[in-house]
Please model this.
Amino acid sequence: MRQAFAALFIALVFALAACVLAARRSYRPIGKAVALLSFALIPPVIGNLLLVLSGNQTIALIGCYTYFIGMDFVMVALLRFTFEYCNMQWKSPQLRLAVYAVLTLDVVQLLLNPFTGHAFDTEAVVLEGLNYYRLVPHIGQTFHRVVDYGIFFTILLIFFIKIIRSPRIYMERYSVILFSMIVTGAWQTYYIFSRTPIDRSMAGYGVFGLLIFYFSLYYRPMTLLDRMLAKMASDNSEALYFFDAEGRCIWANGHGIELVDIKGQKFDQAADLLNGKFGFREYTDKEWTHDQILGSGEEAKYYHFDKKSITDEKNRFTGSFLSIRDCTAEQLALAREMYAARHDDLTDLYTKAYLYECIEKELQKHPDRQYLVIYLDVMDFKIVNDVFSTAYGDTALIRLSDWIRKNLSKESVYGRLGGDTFGIFIPKKNFDKEKIEKELSHFSVKEGNVDYSLMIHLGVYEVGEKDKEVSVMFDRAHLALTTIQSEYQVHVAFYDEKTRKDVLWSNRLSAQLNDALKNRELQPYYQPIVDVNGKVVGAEALVRWIHPTEGFLSPAVFIPVFEKNGAIVEVDRYMWRSACEMIREWGDRFGDIFVSVNISPKDFYFMDVSYELQNLVKEYGIDPSRLRIEITETVMMTDLEKRMKILSDLRQAGFIVEMDDFGSGFSSLSLLKDMPVDVLKIDMKFLNKASDDHKAKTILQNIINMSEDLGIFSLTEGVETNVQHNMLAEMGCRLFQGFYFARPMPREAFERFLDEGDKLIVTE
Ligand code: C2E
Ligand code: CA
Ligand code: CA
Model:
């Protein structure tokens, strides 16, 4: 009996020591408290071990002291553990101090016992033929019991209250400790009062220590976790199905039940129902994902499947779960977003980026086909916007895109490159140049009371090297287009070697301009302007480039190049200055003849035209009325009011303003009546276009009459024959300019011409 208990106590000491070591290593805050408690339980067990083994009184007494003082430590440790385990704080530091003071007092009075004998004694009883020293309690021992029981019952009470107040799930956690404390306490009490020789309740203390160790450090409230997971699963927006190892569905959340319509919680039907709805899948041990669309068009539903397996610690398959997400809304939003990113808002055609992407794909798909890349541009679209309205402009673009959609073959791809430009990628065999040219060169857009024909130009690049970047292909198509940008007769231009050379050539010209101005390679030529009597009254200054390598260059060749890059400003400044110089030099030598200079529409963008001209005449000290200003209608197409103001300023300053090339573009007589101009310069060239001679005459007569009525002089240029001259004179035209009188000529020739002029001109 003794040996058995001794062995049990020794085993307990080892077990508790192991708990101390393990608990100390725990990362959880309660680890320290558990370690202390396990440690504090060792001395009472050792004390009892000594009592059990003791054959003499001294050892028995040592056993008793170890036991009692040890119990005081157990109380300290138990208090600390309780506070930690129940997540509590001392009500006040004073209370804590008082409790510890009482415990200390107990230790002191127990230590005094060998001298005073007031606490307890031992008496020998014979047990299994050996002396066993049993405790004889006195008053001090009673104090000890009151203290320890007091604390012990308080702790029981704390746990009891905790159980009552905590949610059910946590009750287990507290009740296990409370229950083991009650058992141990009762057992101990039974021993104390029954005075049985060997304190068996010590075994209870040991077990109590082990229970605490387990519940504080290793126990997880599984019911709590279960509930949390179940809650998450039920609330999940996905449909969830849990399968056991045999692939039988054991549970599904609300969405899962709804999705396949599981009736009456019969979850084992789920696999069949799922197979019925989505087609056969396996619900056993494999992990897989799958995307599926049910239905089509607007009704289409998108589902994402995700199947996961669960294995135990030995990696044996224990079950699986399937989640099905209805991603229809996401897919639709994504599709909408994709669509918006790929389609132009206004025309609903592809955007540039997406068009390029599609073209790349087409090229990869059909590497053997021959394709054309077309750059389509509306001429003077800015003017359309300004003159009519942006709303009309938008309508025009929409009509144009509708035309493209309707008339281009299925195999072509097209989109809006930006503004008024469109890109088309079309198999060469499907490109009907005649049709496109016919329908697009004058593309009528009728909207409200506006009926205007857009003039559309196409630059075409035949795809040669398929691995060229699409942007380069469009650059080339655009280059081709620039070669006909100011043309009214040609609407389609193909990129070829010549285009490339032309572009290189224009770039070279631009680079040479500064030097050319310095070296006086640019020269003014003068074309006489005569009155109705054939008397030279002025001249138009027209620029020529006597190029060192290219020879004589017509302005028709280089002016458009410089208009495009803005260098025209330099040319015009130079020409105006030359004209002023000329006027000053001539003085009255040939009477008060005037010089007309040309003003490019671009000049208005790059400089203050009125300011520059006024400064020039001041600088040269000449009469502004001798420097005539030729502007074209295009100048008035943008910023109409601002430009009118500039012209009015110029007229106020004494300049004479001429409307050049009347009849070429937008020619509107109604616009003319508000226009601050003095002279209308009608170009015969444009009239010759009118096939019907009679019609041309009528138009001309009307223009002349109308301008006269408005107090505007008419000047006809491009007069090539005597017949024309006579007819115009008869119609009431005041001034004339044309090859019939003289071609533009250099300064010296013009001066000679002036000297002998009158003789040269035939008038009737
Ligand atoms: P424009 O202002 O309409 O000039 C009249 C053009 O008609 C000149 O061409 C002239 O040589 C040509 N011409 C004159 N009489 C006749 C005729 O009887 N029959 C025919 N077929 N043509 C005739 P040019 O000199 O080649 O100039 C072409 C254009 O270049 C000019 O047209 C003008 O727009 C521009 N230009 C010329 N010099 C300048 C300049 O200094 N500055 C600016 N901005 N443009 C200029
Ligand atoms: Ca002119
Ligand atoms: Ca002209």
